[in-house]
Amino acid sequence: YAMLLSLIFLIVLVAAVVGFVFRHEIKTNFESNLNLALRDYNVTANRHSEAVDTIQRTLHCCGVQNYSDWERTEYFTQRGIPRSCCKSQDDCSEEDLKDLRKAKLKVFVDGCFFLVTSTMESKMSVVAGISFGIACFQLVGIILACCLSQYITNNQYEMV
């Protein structure tokens, strides 16, 4: 049991170190994947399009860097900016969403990349605290399992 807990502890430790060391690569990878999701965005409900819509609705953002990123997509030429960018769903018409000048007044203008990364960085201290707490419990479990193993080994011949 102590060996299993030690193995899990080491895996978590390595994952935390790798995540910290490669955090800039993670940001770059996220930005390129978000750009790909915008490029491949379509009306059919695939998981990438749903993820983009959820991010834009939840964080009140639009596009990667700003709302004009949609202009370079195939979806924009057909239908304009997606409705998930609208500040108010009642006040967003398809004609407004096809014109960037009109859309600027009706959609969120901030890009999602900065908001997602800043949200993740602000929550990182909470994640680190929870991880540290779990690691402490694992260490206590490892120590107690080793003590129990030692106790059983020492008292093996004294059992009646």
A few lines on this structure:
The chain has 160 residues and is mainly alpha-helical.
What topology does this entry show?
Blueprint: H1 2-21, H2 23-39, H3 47-59, H4 74-79, H5 94-98, H6 100-106, H7 112-154
Helix pairs in contact: 1-7
Q: Tally the helices: what do you get? A: 7
Number of domains: 1
Strand content: under 5%
Task: Tally the beta strands.
Answer: 0
Topology as H/E string? HHHHHHH
Terminus-to-terminus distance: 26 Å
Kindly provide the radius of gyration, computed on alpha-carbon positions and rounded to a whole number of angstroms.
25 Å
Shape: rod-shaped
Q: Any overview of this molecule?
A:
It is found in: Membrane. The chain crosses the membrane at residues 126-152. Residues 1-19 form the signal peptide. May be involved in cell proliferation and cell motility. The protein has seven helices and no strands. The protein has 160 residues and is an all-alpha fold. It has one domain (1-158). The two termini are 26 Å apart. The model has no long low-confidence stretch (mean pLDDT 85).
Labels describing this entry:
160 residues; mainly alpha; rod-shaped
